[in-house]
Design a protein that fits this description.
Among the domains are: 136 residues, no CATH class; 209 residues, Nucleotidyltransferase, domain 5 (2-Layer Sandwich), CATH 3.30.420.10; 178 residues, no CATH class. The two termini are 45 Å apart. It is of the alpha+beta class. α5 crosses α8, α15 packs parallel to α18 and α28 runs antiparallel to α31. The strands form seven sheets. Strands 8, 9, 10, 11, 12, 13, 14, 15 and 16 form a nine-stranded antiparallel β-sheet that branches. A five-stranded mixed β-sheet has the order 20-19-18-21-22, with helices on both faces. It has a three-stranded antiparallel β-sheet with strand order 5-24-25, with no helix packed on it. This is RNase H type-1 domain-containing protein.
């Protein structure tokens, strides 16, 4: 029994007395509430009360949406982040919190209750933060800082080891990959790793706790999600960890440890290749889609525990992605033909017929046509080729044509299951895949005398530098510089963005002895920036310097010099260091300097000032950018960098983690927004690159009034959001929400013939006739605006104005339907089409001036459209309400008396197609999500953005037409 009333804890140099409270109570320590049983109900209730109290008070005040956004983003959410820094808020709780703050946001902008969440949290619009997303990026940044902080890194290592023991696995990241969503049964780190898979992120730790004596943990084979932890407990009680302990035959060659009955030798590596089958050929990476004929494939689908047959119609192998194939689905004809009735079931021929549609069918251009067929897209490397020929037989209840497989159905099914298990098996111990250093050094000895090279330089180069082909040039340089003690270098970097993929070049010249003619150059990619190119030149120069030498670096990069000087500043804490750009490279630089015990100083050189040596380094850097071998560094060997974050297929996030994850979240919201059926036209326009997203983002937030905040400004923003999302209160929406109140009146108030809807509004003949003179008037204003501001020759940009499709139709005749002129449709929906912003670029008007001129022009144009169209419609709507005695109170009373029936609107769940709604653990060998993991639009945009290192909005202007036939992955956080 503990009798003291307080416990003394040391925080820095201060000792704080903490009050001892009962197990169910919470004690406030440094602003957060701690419970000894790890219960967080008190904190959750406190946040809930805070949000409801704040939002209820905000609704009573006359404030604009800007005030609401500021209070939520800058006051409430940072407070929530601080209170919850020691645990993960579960998704359903985040949903409740988000529901509260969304209500006040909608109220401030007069938006309908049904407005999409992808608008509320979308950076393109005036937005508020999603509590779930903000929690994820803050927790990820916190874990990275804790793992790389000397004070807390040992604690993180212990927690990782503890989690591996809890989940009974030798790879916690692999196991958490198949947990659907965070759970109360998981701790903070386990929940965070579980969430990271849905963002294609992964923490790479320089430490690893391997469990020997086997290859396959039994925890990877558990398939009953609701009993996962019960099974783990049973395995622990039986002291069984690996599958090898069960399937290995006992004989004299098996040596057991009598203390724990474990194998005392490592299980040999299993060859996972399947030589009996052939996979589809991998085509070259391209942005084009390749059509395929006469190729048939099959694969095992764990989604329905059966084999899938298909005829391939196209292949896609986009840059930085795995190859995917789209095929027409065929099914096995279970009933035998009369000609084979006498055959045994395993001897009957295997006939195939077209599938008329199933749960596996994905949304693509083939399934959108009118044919009653089923098309599926999947990863190419999980399929194998089968031999099929056309058959003249006929089968009742099946459609022609029919095909016959060379092999029986049971044989192909068995082959598919074996191939699936081989492809999806977890990797064996990583040590077996590492090249033997003794063998590798003996191979190097044939090209260079390793004895003449200092062993410290040799180890640094071999451990850190990748790929291996760069080792010999650097080792030769280290050998050439071995006799020097005072060394001077001129370094430079080069960034080339001419190609679709930017390339960085780096180079340096050894200036202490010019007669030696010692130079170096190379190239790199990912996170392209001139500063990174300069830093790589400095690192490659230092890694070949002899130990305990004095180094002087001449560089024209003031950024590199300033950052290097900050490294020794006490203000640069371990957490702040992780937020600087290229932090892993700076850690590599620090590690090289400390290992070689170098004394390094920098001298600033003015760029392109006629300095011969600096110009030589510049030439070397540009030559290096043409290299096809891109240097990277193996961070696993850097002691100060205990962990780092990677995206998708291994791209190291070498930037501020919060900002980088924010880019990923932005692209996810962009993709989800385009997936709304109500704005499918905008999706087509976006994928055809008709929308200028940068100017559209500015336009949605543009304030033309002198006051920074006003009710009029909020009304303007509300109109833009409703127009862009087809949420204007037209009669189809009003009849859906108030059917008895409007008596099903749905005739357009302007043309008096068609049913009024958001789509009809811009297709209405009356509307097109009314806006024609508006566009004729603004065409002249547009032409005058550009010609008066441009200093270029008019002939160079005249076609961009006179032939502009935005205004050309007004001088001829209105279109039959608005989709005939998609650029005009974009403009009417308050998006900025590229055809409207391009003339400013053609006239060589600066970007800042373009923003000012274009936004003012858009405001005047939309003001005339609004007053001509919507005010006329609003006047007719007002007369209708007056005639039918409908007031604002009528709508409020109707909403009060007709509560929404949640049971009717509840989504039907399908057991066989329920990935996004299932809970618990997914067996990695019985899960089909791995087939859909690499072809999402947001993954493509994020990879491109990290490669080019540009503002996230710039990546939306890439060619996205290839995603017209793409599929999307369902993840549990779509509903958050």
């Amino acid at each position: 029994m503990y009798n003291n009333k307080t416990v003394s804890l040391k925080f820095g140099v201060d000792i704080v007395d903490i009050k001892v409270v009962p197990p169910n109570d919470n004690e406030r320590i440094l602003g957060i509430y701690i419970n000894i049983n790890n219960k967080f109900k008190f904190t959750i209730n406190k946040i809930n009360r805070m949000l409801k109290y704040t939002c209820s008070n905000l609704k009573k005040k006359r404030i604009t949406h800007d005030h609401v956004i500021y209070i939520i983003n800058k006051v409430l959410i940072p407070r929530i982040e601080y209170l919850c820094q020691h645990f993960i808020i579960l998704p359903y709780i985040c949903n409740n919190f988000n529901r509260t703050i969304r209500s006040i946001y909608k109220s401030s902008l007069l938006l309908p209750r049904s407005i999409y969440n992808t608008i509320i949290h979308n950076q393109i619009y005036p937005n508020i933060l999603n509590i779930w997303d903000h929690q994820f990026l803050s927790q990820t940044s916190l874990l990275n800082a804790q793992a790389n902080n000397p004070l807390t890194k040992n604690l993180i290592e212990y927690l990782i080891l503890y989690s591996q023991s809890r989940l009974w696995t030798n790879d916690i990241f692999f196991t958490t990959k198949y947990l659907d969503s965070p759970s109360k049964k998981l701790n903070r780190i386990e929940n965070l790793l579980c969430i990271m898979h849905n963002y294609k992120l992964e923490f790479k730790f320089s430490f690893k706790f391997n469990t020997k004596e086997g290859s396959y943990p039994l925890s990877a084979f558990l398939i009953r999600s609701n009993q996962f932890f019960n099974f783990i407990k049973s395995l622990k009680n039986k002291d069984i960890f690996f599958l090898d302990q069960i399937i290995t035959v006992d004989d004299n060659s098996i040596i057991l440890n009598q203390n724990n009955l474990r194998l005392t030798f490592d299980v040999p590596v299993i060859n996972r290749q399947n030589p009996t089958i052939s996979h589809p050929k991998i085509i070259a990476q391209s942005s084009q889609i390749t059509k395929i004929k006469n190729i048939w494939i099959a694969y095992w689908c764990p989604r329905n525990n059966d084999i899938i047959y298909g005829r391939v119609v196209e292949k896609q192998h986009f840059y930085n992605h795995h190859q995917t194939i789209t095929f027409e689905h065929y099914v096995n004809i279970s009933t035998s033909h009369p000609s084979s009735h006498n055959n045994m079931p395993r001897s009957r021929p295997n006939y195939l017929a077209k599938c008329s549609g199933c749960i596996l069918s994905e949304q693509n251009i083939y399934n959108n046509n009118s044919s009653n067929s089923c098309y599926i897209t999947t990863l190419s490397n999980y399929t194998f080729i089968i031999n099929v020929s056309k058959s003249n037989l006929s089968f009742p209840n099946y459609r022609k044509p029919f095909y016959k497989c060379v092999c029986q159905h049971s044989t192909i099914k068995q082959t598919a299951l074996i191939d699936f298990n081989l492809c999806t098996s977890p990797p064996v111990n990583s040590d077996s895949n590492i090249e033997d250093p003794i063998i590798y050094r003996s191979q190097l000895q044939q090209f260079i005398d390793l004895v003449s090279i200092n062993f410290i330089n040799k180890n640094l180069i071999l451990q850190l530098v990748q790929p291996n082909s760069l080792h010999i040039p650097l080792l030769k340089l280290a050998s050439s510089l071995a006799l020097y003690t005072n060394l001077e270098f001129y370094t430079d970097g080069s960034l080339i963005r001419d190609d679709n993929i930017p390339t960085m070049g780096h180079g340096w010249i050894f200036s202490s002895d010019l007669n030696a003619n010692i130079t170096y150059s190379g190239a790199s990619r990912e996170w392209a920036s001139s500063t990174k190119a300069e830093l790589l030149a400095i690192i490659t120069a230092l890694i070949v310097c002899p130990p305990s030498s004095t180094i002087t670096i001449h560089t024209d990069s003031n950024n590199c010099i300033n950052t290097y000087n900050k490294l020794s500043s006490p203000k640069l804490t371990a957490r702040r260091f992780q937020n600087i750009n290229n932090c892993t490279l700076w850690n590599t630089l620090k590690y090289i300097i400390s290992t070689l015990q170098l004394s390094v100083s920098f001298i600033k050189v003015k760029a392109h000032s006629g300095d011969i040596l600096n110009d030589t380094a510049d030439i070397l850097a540009k030559e290096g950018s043409r290299s096809t071998e891109y240097i990277t560094f193996n961070i696993q060997h850097i002691k100060n960098q205990r962990c780092h974050l990677t995206f998708h297929d291994g791209t190291v996030i070498d930037r501020n983690i919060r900002k980088s994850i924010k880019r990923i979240i932005n692209f996810q919201y962009f993709e989800r927004h385009l997936k709304h059926q109500n704005i499918h036209r905008i999706k087509d326009y976006a994928l055809n690159n008709l929308i200028d997203w940068e100017f559209s983002q500015i336009w949605f937030k543009y304030n033309s009034l002198s006051k920074p905040t006003s009710e009029q400004y909020s009304k303007h923003v509300s109109w833009r959001i409703k127009s862009s999302s087809n949420n204007l209160p037209t009669l189809d929406i009003l009849n859906r929400n108030y059917p008895d109140l409007l008596n099903n009146h749905e005739t357009c108030f302007l043309c008096l013939t068609e049913k009024e809807s958001n789509d009809h509004l811009w297709n209405c003949p009356r509307v097109l006739s009314l806006i024609t003179p508006i566009f004729l008037e603004h065409y002249n204003k547009f032409k005058t605006l550009i010609t008066s501001e441009s200093e270029s020759v008019y002939a160079l940009y005249s076609d961009a104005i006179t032939r502009n499709i935005i205004f050309k139709w007004a001088r001829t005749r209105p279109p039959n339907q608005i989709i005939d002129i998609p650029d005009l449709h974009c403009l009417l929906m308050n998006f900025v089409p590229i055809s409207l912003s391009y003339p400013f670029k053609a006239a060589k008007i600066s970007k800042n001036k373009t923003k000012k001129l274009l936004l003012k022009f858009l405001f005047d144009l939309h003001k005339d459209i609004y007053e001509t169209i919507w005010k006329a419609r609003a006047s007719a709507w007002k007369e209708f309400k007056k005639t039918h005695h409908i007031t604002k109170k009528s709508f409020n009373n109707y909403r009060r008396d007709h509560n929404r029936d949640t049971n009717q609107n509840r989504r039907t769940r399908h057991r066989n197609n329920n990935l996004e709604n299932s809970n618990g653990y997914h067996c990695p060998f019985n899960d089909s999500r791995r087939h859909l993991e690499n072809n999402n639009l947001w993954i493509y945009l994020t990879s491109s953005n990290f490669l080019h290192n540009l503002p996230w909005i710039s990546s939306l202007n890439e060619d996205l037409s290839q995603f017209h036939s793409n599929i999307y992955n369902n993840i549990f956080l779509l509903n958050i």
